[in-house]
């Protein structure tokens, strides 16, 4: 042993309280490592430390004991022999009596008691000795928080690991624990204390054992903490939450039925307190404890529980009844708060436990019977006074919950209430089917008392829910012979007839919405009862359906009723699906589905077309077979009306066709997409379109309906987009055959793709140069298929199609450009395109687009520049963009097309996008090369010189928006675009530096203006985090962009987006430096935007942005103060309230930086 | 100055629920929402009572019904009810109301602040003082008064 001196040093340093905690910790570590590495044994250490452990100096003794304890804590895995264990535990057991050095003793005991069995453990007798010493010596409540925590942990450990030994201590232990726990306030210690009590109860399961006499004390102790309520702010005790503590207490309470005589009265008492927290907790605890205490014990309290529950439910529902008058589709508009929810849970629990007792209590309850008798006499909902409504609702909910509990309750409640309700409603027990039609004249709505209808519906729905629940869980099945069942069967016919006749037209106008709600609901429930329990004959069922259908067709002005009826029909339709009885299914199909479909083509019915479509779609959602039928029907109508327009030139059908197509696009296709297995429907739709295209183009009628064509394209796109590759292949083949049979498109383009380029000629012949209507129709529909195609879908004759699209987008068809972009985006690379040799790979497609020069210039005298470069022969796409041909329109079209192609490239991350960007930048700059004077000239004279026209430059700037923004029309996830992650970031970080340097170099004001615009458009779509990280460079150009975009009303959305970017920079920490540098300009810009008239959100955001500006250093912003305050005081008179409110706040922020006169 | 509180134990009422106002739909950018009773009330409801940590709304010193607004003629009249008849804080409350409204309403507005008839022992004097702009200006020159007003107004900007 060569280490004693070192050891002594470490011990000395640990024991010395003047050393810093870190020094003590390192010396402890050193000692631990010595023991761990077998350099010294624990025995040696203890012997070495003798003087520290036996000295009369309290502090040193405490530290010495703690050192050994901490050491043992860290050596749980080191095996120790029995002798060592015995002597160590003996030592610590003794030390428990030494209150000055208690910490070490507690830690040591814990460390030894917690050891795993394979490394040597404390023997049972030793453990008992620990417990005895503990009970004899420690006054837990006189200790500090940390020591108390250790004490509880030690107790818990003893009870868990040595239950028999500890239990043998008997009453001593119980008394000790009661004493230890009494008055504890620290959350963590309490959590332990509750666990200890829970465990203690398990030790003495005998009801007449030693625990019995202490139950009163223990529950009294625990009761002090109920309900758990934290007065401390949450920050400190983040590790113990109120819920944990509350749950631990609940478990402790529920641990033995012996607590019942003490706890249940306590809970009931707290339940009547006005504190919501106490109420919720009492209800929760009662629900949890009731099953543990057992039915017999709880029976004693049944009466008291019922009365408290009733009061709790009534008061809590009265409080939450503010929204009682609001009528919504979801009934009475009551919000069930936590108290009511818990109360109903408890009601259900106690009912399950003591069904007979409680149900007789409820049925004999005076309040319930009074309410029942009074409230059922009112005719309509609106006649009942407010309090009455609330009471009625309480009774209704209680009845619902109790009836739904189990079948026994259900029988009892049905027997006692249902016949009385039927009497009030004057519904007779007619059972013969002949009698039911006599009830036709049961239309006296005033006999149909609301209260009775409401309670009846609650009973019925409870019964139905009970049946459905038991079917799902397949537990006790309910037979048709049950009392409630027989009763319902007896009344059902008359009841259904009564509901039907009151819902019939005429009665509804006078009734309140709530009345109608429950009538519809009642009928719906009756119609969806399981067949075996309530057989309804076919004619009755049809009667129900007809009643609802007549509402759908006639009562559409009564929106609530209409919606309710529609929802009821959907419910019934869904229900038929689950219980397959063909008779009902077929009558639903005939009366509802076919009837409503038959209405679509004719506009004679008064039901508005949009509502018709809504109803049709909703009914379709009830069942797949219904939807398929409906889709077929709607498809026929769509194509009929389209043909009506395109073949017969009947423009009246345009509106209907558009609505139908939108219904397909917005509702039906997404629904099909959701179900996922109806692809043949989509395929049929797309093929049908192409079948009809032939007939449309064959007719001579010329119809210019942009909206209709757009709607058709969108529907086609969505249909194709949701198809699989195989179906897409079929569609494309079909479409291509139509396209290629149309000679005027393909022949002209593929052989001699030439566009006559005249300086003025093209402009004059603009109209004639467009495709004829039918060509346009085919072309655009074909483009929409290409846009929606999947990457692997085979496109025939790619080169030809490329040429076609190139030619057409130059004529201004944006969809062609989008299709081209989609093709470029999805075409395979050469390496994996080897399967089909005739296929065109991406590289070739790019080559075709950029390098063929199919545009022959007829006119050699265009201009000097043009002659010089191309010698009037051939011009490529890029040349076209930059303006070698003096045709503004052509140039704009070329730039827009280029932008879409560039977007396709950008999304897939192809490097060619750089070239596209360069061409666009060249367009932005080109007037710089010819000089500003020429620009002015061209602006003034509005002639076509060879500098770029402003509109061309603007479209070049806007091309950056196309590149960066997400489009709904194409190149998105829905249409299977290949999208590389982070493409926006990448483009932003490559293009921004170029734009910034160009701005600096640019010497023409107009060109700079356009560069600002382009930069702004790139910034506003870039992810904020990237922009903020570049804030220093970006901010100046962003501010210029704000002023550029605020000039044109068309750009208001973009302006708003850009302003949001600025506000992002303002609120970010990384943006602060940039803000400081540009404070002056930012404030100028924002004060200008405060009066931006075209968008409220811009004004509001500008003011919000000004608030953080006021926090900048005083000297910096002081000079701006007057300017800002003047601008804001104008905003105080803004037409919009939101702006004014922001202005008040902002004004305060700015005013407080200086003088404080009322006017500032 | 009086030591101790003038109304040591005021009745505190419940706050009214804040109504969320439906803004005109985005479709109409140029819709006009004129300044109305509720908006003015929203400006002043959170002003703190000079004596107690409650808002004027909670003490029912002001209520929405006691505000008259005419947006076309740019006129507002606020009638407030001191909690006790002899309340010397009435002038401070009135001053707070005036300052807050001057700061929150467009400058075209004329603001009239009054004590509800019959609720204050020196009603006429208070009304005269509150609507005399010289005296208001003078009061706001007083740093102590101004501090007090600002403290009362602070919560209403949150």
Which regions of chain A have little confidence, pLDDT < 50, spanning 5+ residues? 322-329, 431-445, 747-768, 832-838, 856-874, 928-946
Q: Helix count of chain A? A: 60
As an assembly, this protein is heterodimer
Nearest-integer average pLDDT of chain A: 79
CATH C-level name of chain B: Alpha Beta
Count of discrete alpha- or pi-helical segments spanning 4 or more residues of chain B = 5
Show the largest interface. A-B, 23 and 25 residues
Low-confidence stretches of chain B: none
Structural class designation of chain B: alpha+beta
Question: What is the strand tally of chain B?
Answer: 3
- Overall CATH architecture of chain B: 2-Layer Sandwich
Question: What does the radius of gyration of chain B come to?
Answer: 16 Å
- CATH-defined topology of chain B: GMP Synthetase, Chain A, domain 3
User: What composes the largest sheet of chain B?
Assistant: 3 strands, mixed
Radius of gyration of chain A: 42 Å
Helix/strand order of chain B, N-terminal first: HEEHEHHH
Q: What is the count of β-strands of chain A?
A: 2
Coarse shape of chain A: globular
Pfam family, one (chain B): FeS_assembly_P
Protein name (chain B): Protein AE7
Family (chain B): Belongs to the MIP18 family.
Organism (chain B): Ziziphus jujuba (Chinese jujube)
What does the model show?
The complex is a heterodimer of chains A (1160) and B (158). With 1160 residues, chain A is mostly helical. Among the domains of chain A are: 1-138; 750-919 and 942-953, no CATH class; 1078-1160, no CATH class. Helix content of chain A is 69%, strand content 0%. Chain A contains 60 helices and two strands. Chain A has a two-stranded antiparallel ribbon with strand order 1-2. In chain A, helix 14 (242-253) runs parallel beside helix 16 (276-293) and helix 49 packs parallel to helix 51. Chain A is globular and about 110 Å long. Chain B is 32% helix and 10% strand. In chain B, helix 2 (90-104) packs across helix 5. By secondary structure, chain B is α+β, with helices and mostly antiparallel strands. Chain B has helices spanning 37-44, 90-104, 123-130, 133-141, 143-153, and strands at residues 67-70, 75-80, 110-115. Chain B has a single domain (37-157), classed as Fe-S cluster assembly (FSCA) (GMP Synthetase, Chain A, domain 3). A three-stranded mixed β-sheet of chain B has the order 1-2-3. The chains are: A mainly alpha (1160), B alpha+beta (158). The A-B interface holds A 1093-1096, 1129, 1132-1133, 1135-1138, 1140-1141, 1144-1145, 1147-1148, 1151, 1156-1160 and B 21, 23, 29-33, 35, 39, 42-43, 98-99, 102-108, 136, 140, 146, 150, 157.
